[in-house]
Amino acid sequence: MNSSLQLGPLFPLWLALAVVCNLLTFKDKLNSLMAMRLRRKHKIQSNAEEDVDDSASSTLLDLPDLPIDIILSKLSPQTLAVAASVCKELREKCSADHMWQPHVQGKWGAIAGDSAFEEWKHNCKGLTNSHVNPSRSEDPSPPCKSRIIWPLSCMWSPWEKSPAYLPQKMDGISNAYMKWYATLETGTYWFSAQIYNREHGHAGFLLSCYDAELCYDRQTDTFKARYPPHGSCSPFLEEGISWDRVRKPPVSTTAHELYRSFSLKDLRPDDHIEVQWRRNKRFPYGWWYGVVGHLTVCDKDSRYCNCHLDDMVWLEFNQYPPESRWRRTGLQRNMHTEKGDDTEGFYAGVRKLSLDEASSWMRMWPTEPLE
């Protein structure tokens, strides 16, 4: 019994020691687990920071060429011009002809044709040969930085000041469409075009279209026109011309040349046409709107009409009253010559119009018949 009393307290002491050892072991494992979780969390944060740094150091130029071209093609002309001044690499991309040709065609294509563009390039080459040293080429663009601040919006207009339009090479014009757009936008160049209803819609020129030299006025979003002298009259300057009164010349014939008509044999009644007309031999031709009429003996029934087989084609100008001497005239289908006199003027070449061209004329139809 004494021995049992002596051994009794040893068992609880052993049990207590075992519990303490287990607790210490669990604490070590817990500390190890916490340390592992902290290291993993720190690693994740470090990777995230590295990803942020990598994304912050990437630039637009790190993209392939196709995505860059797609992005740049969505920019407005003003923003594209600003982007071209960021660095040399972007200037080469932003000033490329394939970037600016759609902008030129979209805004100026209907009034400034290929002939005006070629004439401007010819003038630029002449100025280059006279004033620019082709062996000297300066690049004002700053070197491309590792991080580019991309202009999301145009805070200023690059057209406020006239850029340098003169090309740097004698054998051609680099970035021609960008410079051509800037030239037209700033109004520093007079280009050839045609004006509907010249001289502010003067009654003597209604439903006519005359050659002129134009320049754009950005302040009023209109055009100025210089008309060549008519006879003894001095050149006339007209301002405030709206966009809908301007068109590019449909043919290459000048205002003093007879247009060679190749559609006279194909003209039928009710076709829309333009005909060259001038007051006398000293005046330039203007294009006047009209329609093809019927013969006087025709009942105008399309089922039995043979007017298109006659040697004479009759042109009608329905903006004039029936009794007017300007209402109707006839031309020989097989003769490409000028017809008329100093009393009624001289008629020359005839153009058959498309529906779009005819609709442009109809928008300007006078509210009352002309006298």
From TrEMBL:
InterPro entries, sorted: F-box-like_dom_sf, F-box_dom
Q: Which UniProt keywords apply?
A: Membrane, Transmembrane, Transmembrane helix
Where are the membrane-spanning stretches?
Answer: 6-26
**Stated name of the protein:** F-box domain-containing protein
| Start and end residues of each F-box domain | 57-103
Family annotation (SUPFAM superfamilies): F-box domain
Give the source's domain of life in one word: Eukaryota
